[in-house]
């Protein structure tokens, strides 16, 4: 490492780290989107809402006046947003603003404008370090399990069986014994619909696990999910979530994967079912009149595009079911596809009428995996069936050859192939117009399982940090004070070498923070603990090195030889001690959850950065000092140690 | 040069006495560790109090009843308070409710802890039912997760560190390091019990930090022993002693530097982080102590014993 050119490596690393950290400190712009519907409210209400917003802006949201808002919060903006400018706009604050002014601000459309760095390097992805619930507050949501819906869905899946058994029970042609059997079976099935507290709890436990997984997949490091047993509910704490409704959708997503048969087509070769044809006819009529915008499918697409929510979609479909007199036996769904262009977005394209009875559900499927089809240039999902599922699948496919069997993912029909022949063997695959992400998502839903119960929001609350803003500020000051004292300590003890160590220490913290923000890590108190330990380990590494150099100098070696030897001797010591800590860190990430994981992530990255700074950066600077700048005396400790044979 | 090996039995006995005192006081005097809502679960109620009730009044109320409650002001305008009461006070609450309602009250006898708490608050503050905004028995977040994963996590960690150290050093070093680590953990837990520090997320973080620090410290000493062991003129115990002395300056400086940053938390007045800082301060001193007085001497003891076994 004698070559001077190498100095560009650390300079480059520091420069890019500072660039990465820039969005954390830069002045930022936030678009607070306003609701268009606001203007339809009575004038009195509008005035109240605006003056309340203006009042709270001064007292609660921005008491110190650090931020600017345009236009004045007492005025409804002409554009469809307020523009807030300032530093340190936290997602907790954005949440608070949106949650407390729901009639004015439309949260899903709020936008923190990307800084130049984010815009050009990361394509608009936000880069700021997120703070955990314990540091900045966040959302706490209590979700209540909807067991009524659960049972009605459960009943759907037994519709056919119940129907058959009821018939059997009443069939006089059958023997007494057979009728008795049917009756017993019926009773057994009915008992499935009765939920004991124990069963409810088991379902909640399942839901908790799945929510945990989903949140982890959303890059949320420390969500807390816990069951409130006596309320049949699940409490979710979301630290620093900037878009609560989106996350809420993900949590509540009861996405299931089900097979349902399509309504049978009648004898006419072009027919795809009475109700389907009726809808299509209506659409054709409008199309022919040039009223494409008025067709139901386009109207439905608009609901989806405007993100009006699932409730709106359901309402729309219900209205259609009424309009076309679709009987109770069937249910209206929408098929989503990409039209002709494989790059187009997945949109609802066609209404389909499916049987209400579920032919095969997620419980029957397992081990799903996404794969790429070389020939068709698209992804598909293959899975295996449980033995019971395989039986059912064979039964359905053999009885319904020629009919279409639709795969419903969530509430979307993603494919509805025609059954050509009975399928046995327990393996199957789902073809749809999948991109890789969708295929992975679908495979996850099948493997992870669907949320067993639908969840309703019982309580949604913005919560303040457990420590309070003031104590965080005090805590932060304390940490900075400690850091400064360590720096002074190193300078006093190791003089010039201490300065080198201090530079290494600073670089270490900067690089670590940059890495964490690059990963979208959520920083919490335990995370802070990890950083403190990292600082400790980085100091330690430098101390080990200097003590070694000191020994070499005391043994009478030349400065440059002593430095080289010192680093060499210290290398494995530092490696060994760091690798052992890294081992425990990695295990904590793999096995631990919540606070342990947050701590371990900072620790592991901290070890990697401190290895870089102490073994590479420190060494390079020392080399430069000794070999290029001709430093001949190193004062390490209070004794002045000079090499004897200068 | 100080002879650390000579006093190994003194230092090990000292540790054992510390452990005995710590756990003795924890279980003898306090009947176990302090409870906390995060760890053990408990009761949580959000209540809208009349405007004239202030935090001070509430604190007095709960302490006069000998109930440990954590109060969080949720909404200043409405005077909403969140009251957290640990499981430790559940019996006390039921008892109080029974006293209030009269010994024969069937209602009070059958009341669950949360009902009892609501009942008490309603009576004592003359609250309407609707002023109790929510009341739940909450489960533990940290405790349940940690007890289930903690033990397997710890044993796996120890196992892998053991493999790494056996590979890089020798089995006796691995054993010494692991025992020293367990030693640190046990004493720190005894410390937490002795001072009845409430287990919480920051405390867990402190324990984990300590684990990392302690291993690190021990390895540095071991590394030096290994290096010096090539020099076989000296007896093994002598080598250990020389190595500890050689690394003493480093051990001391590192500990001081780390201590500075932790003590700054206490000096800086970050009250909520005090427990964290106390545990860490104690842990760092202990970790330093164990790497000098416990880990290496244990290796020496094992070495002596194994030689004796071989001879016999």
CATH architecture identity of the largest domain in chain A: 2-Layer Sandwich
Our Rg estimate of chain B from Cα atoms comes to 26 Å
CATH topology category name of the largest domain in chain A: Gyrase A, domain 2
Number of domains of chain A: 4
Strand fraction of chain A = 15-25%
Spatial strand arrangement across the major sheet of chain A: 11-10-16-15-9-12
What structural class should be given to the helix and strand makeup of chain B?
A: alpha+beta
Proportion of strand residues of chain B? 5-15%
Biggest interface and residues each: A-B, 68 and 64 residues
CATH homologous superfamily name of the largest domain in chain B?
A: Multidrug efflux transporter AcrB transmembrane domain
Give the CA-based shape of chain B: elongated
Described by its quaternary structure, the protein is heterodimer
Physical arrangement of strands within the biggest beta sheet of chain B:
2-3-1-4
Task: List low-pLDDT spans of chain A.
Answer: 641-646
Kindly provide the name of the CATH class of the largest domain in chain B.
Mainly Alpha
Main beta sheet of chain B: strand number and arrangement? 4 strands, antiparallel
Number of helices of chain A: 18
Q: How far is it from the N-terminal to the C-terminal residue of chain A, by CA?
A: 23 Å
3D shape of chain A: elongated
Written description of the protein model:
Chain A is 53% helix and 18% strand. Chain A contains 18 helices and 21 strands. In chain A, the strands form six sheets. A six-stranded mixed sheet of chain A has the order 11-10-16-15-9-12. Chain A has a four-stranded antiparallel sheet with strand order 2-3-1-4, with no helix packed on it. A four-stranded antiparallel sheet of chain A has the order 7-8-6-18. With 312 residues, chain B is of the alpha+beta class. Chain B has helices at residues 8-29, 37-40, 55-64, 90-101, 106-110, 113-125, 142-168, 171-194, 201-229, 236-267, 274-311, and strands spanning 42-48, 69-75, 80-86, 132-138. The two termini of chain B are 34 Å apart. Classes of the chains: A alpha+beta (646), B alpha+beta (312). Chains A and B meet through strand 7, helix 15, helix 16, helix 17 and helix 18 of A and strand 4, helix 7, helix 9 and helix 10 of B. Chain A: It comes from Leptospira andrefontaineae. Chain A: Belongs to the SecD/SecF family. SecD subfamily.
